[in-house]
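Our collaborator T.R. sent over the components below with a one-line note: 'Predict the complex.' Nothing else. No constraints on interfaces, no templates requested, no preferences about which chain binds where. So this is a plain run: every listed entity goes in together, and whatever single assembly comes back becomes the starting point for the next discussion.
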Amino acid sequence: MADEELEDNGQASGRPFWTGTITFGLVTIPVAIHSAIQSRGVGMRMLGPDEVPVQRRYVCSKDDEVLEADDIVRGYEIEKGKFVVITDDELEAIEPRKSREIDLKLFVDADAIEPIYFERAYFLVPTGGTNKAYRLLAEVMEKKKQAGIATFVMRAKEYLVAILAEQGILRAETLRFADEIRQPDEIGLPKVAKTTPAAVKKVETQIAKNAKKLSVREMTDDYAQRLEKLVTAKQKKKKDIVRAPEESKPEEGAEVVDLMAMLNKSLGGVRPAARKAPAAKKRKRA
Amino acid sequence: MHAGTQAVPVKLYSAVQDRSVHFRLLHKTDKSPVRQQLVSSESGETVEYAEVRKAYPLDPGRLVVLEKEELEKLQPKESRDIEVTRFVDIGEIDHRWYERSYYLGPDGDSKGYFAVAAALEKKGKEGIARWVMRDKEYVGSLRAEQGYLMLIVLRHADEIISTSALKAPSGRVLQKKELDMAEQLIQALHGEFDPTQFRDEYRDRVMDLVRTKAAGRKPKVVKFRPRAKETDDVTDALAASLAGMKRKASRG
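Returned assembly:
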């Protein structure tokens, strides 16, 4: 699938999204990319009216013929109802050589990247025989507060990434392209208007009054908690519990793995998890 | 938007737009779009979307059915308010929490709006805001950007894997000479971050390919040669890179 986003693949299985090489100068660092965002997904299942799990299948919209993967091609709609078929081989042929390589030709001050550009974070795990180049890059980048910038193509999509170092670990953060960010005048916001110092002062007082430290408790998913409560209550009352065949496919996030344990293993050492999320919070909302 | 006793009327605008090329799935033989259908895993009979019931997995093989009405009750109350609960120092929220950005624009009177933007900027603070949008609750950061207010959706607490929970790769102590060379190399590659310098060129190539094929022409197929293998020794590679750069610099 060409329009798959980086984030939609392999996340639940703990497999890396991508393996390739980071280069700077002539130094090459083989790495694998793993999500730094944990999908909180067991996910809801779908049942038919008879409480039997349902499955998805593809059918032709014209004659309802049931289609297998081999019967399906990818098309771009050039005008309403008219498609140009694009094959995997054709997409691969226009992939640049750098598709297996994140070539850091530019290093910038890490804090020079505005927050609006950041899209999603991934951890980089060294996969080569030696991790020396990885550690060198991580140590120097962290000390000098630098971010390496590069573009690379993966699964028919080009990504702009910033490589950052924190506590000896390299991270890739996908960035939005400049033309994906709208400017205030584009959306028709009025010109910034001057306000009176008194009006600003009044807000400043309000800010000072409500200035507090950040609390993770503010970042909870209240919906997920309410859902969890409902599920627990129904389970206690033994209400609406149904048996499902083991092999029934969940809606999303098939195997939930402990991403952190997996990452620690790949980074080359196991340490007891410092952060233990209660199972109740790991559920994904419907 | 409410911050303390301050009420500021605002409108929400998406600050980002996806520009990736989107394809449709087609039936190979007749080029008709593909449709998804739900079928019973036992009988294979089609199930209408309206008939689908949601169930939450308890443990392997057991589900609890959640009725539509029960799920509806869990939904947040509709509200047009953005409630700012506290203000924190800029930098306290790591950008990994940021998910999607919106501009807030003044709705009607703009005096209060620009006063909030100016005050946030002056104090170096961002607000923690909560709001409901399309039946979903959001936690976000209220920031001043270029004199305007921006609302950035934050990810939830348990979605982010903290770096401190991970063990960094370890090994033999790095030598000062190697660190110095790596530092020099990074320094030599240092520049300003100008996002407009980067274009999604692959997207352009995909669109070229689409246009070529739409015009009935055959696309060109270019094969790339794999890159020659370089040295595995980091110290050698660093030295060679630095030497290469010096040569380039002296040539001007």
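Summary for T.R.: Helices of chain A lie at 88-93, 132-144, 197-209, 222-236, 259-267.
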